[in-house]
Amino acid sequence: MLRRDGLLTSAVRAHSSRRTEAKIVRTVQDAAFSPTLQRDASPSQLTVSLTLSGSTQPVHLNLRRDEDIYTQPVTIHRVRADGSVHSSETTDDHLVYYGTASTKEKRGHERNWARVSVHMSHGVPLLEGAYHLDGFEYHIQTDSTYRQTRAEHDASVSSAAADQPYNVVWRYIDDEDGLLAKRDDESTCGLDSLAYDGGSLERRQRWGGGGGDTTDSLLQSLGSRSGCPSTRAIALLGIATDCSYTSQFSSEQDLRRNILTQVSSASRVYEAAFNVQLRVRNITISDAECPSGDAGLSWNRACASSLSIADRLNEFSRWKAGFDDQTAAWSLMTACQSGSTVGIAWIRAVCQPGVLVRGAVRSTPGANVVARTAAEWQVLAHELGHNFGAVHDCTRGCSGSSGSGETLCCPLSSSSCDAGGQYMMNPSVNSRVTEFSPCSVGQICAAWGRGNINTACMRGNEDVPTVSESVCGNGVVDAGEDCDCGGEEGCGDNACCNPTTCRFTTGSVCDPSTQRCCTGQCQLASSGQVCRESIGLCDPQEVCSGNEANCPSDEQLPDGQACGENGETGLTCATGVCTSRAMQCSALLTSNNSTETVNSGNVTAEACSSTGCELNCMQMGSGGLALDGGMCQASSKFFRDGTLCGSNSRRCYSGTCGGRASNDDGGGGDAASWIRNNRTVFIIICVVGGIAVLMALATIIHEDMCNETTFVFTRLSSFQGLGIDD
């Protein structure tokens, strides 16, 4: 029986939805590997037959080595408790496999997928990962990992002898009935707005001052992949572990393997939804021994410390803002769950390195914090979805509207709000959710295409850093290769590239799977053919030259160049978008105003001043008269990079005019004062089932409430934990 308790927002306590019996748990009685797996072996193809307790029918996993991960160099930094780096190295050779699952000794249907890592422990071959078979998702863990992440009501497994580890396979019982844990109340989920100084405090938009999402815009882009890359893009990630997370593993190899397994599983849904592959570029590992007092890195503290998960994100963001390594995002992995909280992320911050001004974070980096749970990769995928700019899917009781103080959420369709709790960005994310909703796909792809998220750090498969020797079939065009479409399975019906030699087939001169100026007949596209569409007046289209297979680099008109058309004046280019201070104010107030639509009828918007880079706006009525007594509505946003500010054609960059610090104090010297001054957006994931911490609100955050296996997200009504008192 599945019991569902209501979850309420604001000053009302949130309750959990607990299962009386959450999982079916089986142990692996026998695992047959073909070819036989040996230490230091790395077969490119592998078949694994698993015999589970209580079952006589083996499960067959037909696998291929993931060459993208196998050859991807990962830089490892090891950090002492005092914060100093005591060693660094760059490694590759990470054994992660993907393929299909079946109950017969033949390749299964592609919907029955499998993603696992393989390693030897005390001479015993072990798997970690997941597979999907006949409508159910099964999780494969080592016995030690299962014991560490199991919920209190889950079945226990016996402890293995130190030299005899084994695998555990589990799935949810209520998968049989297709049930998803859902809250019974109708409280609003997603990004809420807050009245502040007589105006509305909106969701901060990190890349681009205009183009805020509305329900109408989400419906218009529903299910559309227009804007997402047509050829595979690669998002390189940084991962850091704190002492609590490191101490969960018996060896560094086990820790690294777990991280790569989580990222590989999350990557599968990003590849399917956005044509984006996730890869780990850097792992920073803290010692298992936690520092004492205030020694070492400020985000690396024991769970018993007063550091909340929100504090960890603030301190982690301050650390990350100190360097720019061209990664899409950094994740801090921890075993600490502040009350019921298991994760937190900045929204729309992908590819943002962050900016420090006198030790304070002035512009937040792409960063998130993820606590270790049984659904670790889903939490990671959900958090990265927020980094890419996705809001939550709508649920029962949500109107899908950003008006009247309600939260913007992603509807299922034009006629239905409730997405049914079945997608990655649903407020009740759990371990069975394995794909993004059509609305989330449309939202991220539209933002990508319009330049409303920063994608400058994304790589193509021909320019990913590598230190390993060339390997044909890894999906990366290495030195000496003509092409690489990913081996026989990845190449499919590609007629241009030989999957085993990575050479062009006879008569072919290019490969359209990786080269935009290549035709389906494997020939160079004609001169003048558009290979990258324009996204506006300041971002001209790129065309093929006729003698090169690669599309020219993406060029934008210079910041500050006039760009108006049809008699429009006062518009200039700002990082590829034709805009003005007034236009950005109109977009901001249009998408968030709760009483009337700005820019409809006689209502317009203007910036409160012609200088500075904080996006503070006022509504204007007919005849140029300010409404609301000329009240200036402060927000946590900045004008788009490249927007004119002040005299001498100075421009805004990272929230400062002319690229220099503004005349204020830079946001203060600590996280609390920075949040007080910036009032930006948090997205938090919390465990349903513990006490929901409710504190005095000075910024907009999300708390994702969940038990050990079901994650539910809602808004906190306060944030005293950071010392905010206004």
TrEMBL record:
<dbReference type="InterPro" id="IPR001762">
    <property type="entry name" value="Disintegrin_dom"/>
</dbReference>
<feature type="binding site">
    <location>
        <position position="392"/>
    </location>
    <ligand>
        <name>Zn(2+)</name>
    </ligand>
</feature>
<comment type="function">
    <text>Probable zinc protease.</text>
</comment>
<protein>
    <recommendedName>
        <fullName>Disintegrin and metalloproteinase domain-containing protein B</fullName>
    </recommendedName>
</protein>
<keyword id="KW-0812">Transmembrane</keyword>
<feature type="transmembrane region" description="Helical">
    <location>
        <begin position="681"/>
        <end position="701"/>
    </location>
</feature>
<dbReference type="GO" id="GO:0007229">
    <property type="term" value="P:integrin-mediated signaling pathway"/>
</dbReference>
<keyword id="KW-0479">Metal-binding</keyword>
<keyword id="KW-0401">Integrin</keyword>
<dbReference type="InterPro" id="IPR001590">
    <property type="entry name" value="Peptidase_M12B"/>
</dbReference>
<keyword id="KW-1015">Disulfide bond</keyword>
<feature type="domain" description="Peptidase M12B">
    <location>
        <begin position="232"/>
        <end position="444"/>
    </location>
</feature>
<dbReference type="Pfam" id="PF00200">
    <property type="entry name" value="Disintegrin"/>
</dbReference>
<dbReference type="GO" id="GO:0004222">
    <property type="term" value="F:metalloendopeptidase activity"/>
</dbReference>
<dbReference type="GO" id="GO:0046872">
    <property type="term" value="F:metal ion binding"/>
</dbReference>
<dbReference type="InterPro" id="IPR024079">
    <property type="entry name" value="MetalloPept_cat_dom_sf"/>
</dbReference>
<keyword id="KW-0862">Zinc</keyword>
<feature type="binding site">
    <location>
        <position position="386"/>
    </location>
    <ligand>
        <name>Zn(2+)</name>
    </ligand>
</feature>
<keyword id="KW-0472">Membrane</keyword>
<keyword id="KW-1133">Transmembrane helix</keyword>
<feature type="domain" description="Disintegrin">
    <location>
        <begin position="469"/>
        <end position="559"/>
    </location>
</feature>
<dbReference type="GO" id="GO:0006508">
    <property type="term" value="P:proteolysis"/>
</dbReference>
<dbReference type="InterPro" id="IPR036436">
    <property type="entry name" value="Disintegrin_dom_sf"/>
</dbReference>
<dbReference type="Pfam" id="PF13688">
    <property type="entry name" value="Reprolysin_5"/>
</dbReference>
<feature type="active site">
    <location>
        <position position="383"/>
    </location>
</feature>
<feature type="binding site">
    <location>
        <position position="382"/>
    </location>
    <ligand>
        <name>Zn(2+)</name>
    </ligand>
</feature>
